[in-house]
Amino acid sequence: IPTPLASNRKSETMESGKGGRKGGAKKKGISKSVKSGLQFPVSRLGRYLKKGRYAKRVGVGAPIYLAAVMEYLAAE
């Protein structure tokens, strides 16, 4: 007995166009501060870095690093 192809099985399991998720309540987002385990507002610091025009581009890790340093200095 031949086994079915992987592509056939994949198409059968796809329920909708949302990556297989079923409709329902949307999960609440997790903030960058919670993801990085910090108390200082990472997103707000990132917004300030962009708005202040300190550089043309701001990296993804810059506000996280800044928040960590500020939190460390506040704890000292």
From TrEMBL:
SMART domains listed in its UniProt record: H2A (SM00414)
One GO cellular component term: nucleus
Biased amino acid composition, Basic residues: 19-30
Origin superkingdom: Eukaryota
Ranges annotated as spanning the membrane: 54-75
Intracellular or extracellular location(s): Nucleus
UniProt keyword list: Chromosome, DNA-binding, Membrane, Nucleosome core, Nucleus, Transmembrane, Transmembrane helix
Gene3D superfamilies in the cross-refs: Histone, subunit A
Family: Belongs to the histone H2A family.
PANTHER family: HISTONE H2A
Protein name, per record: Histone H2A
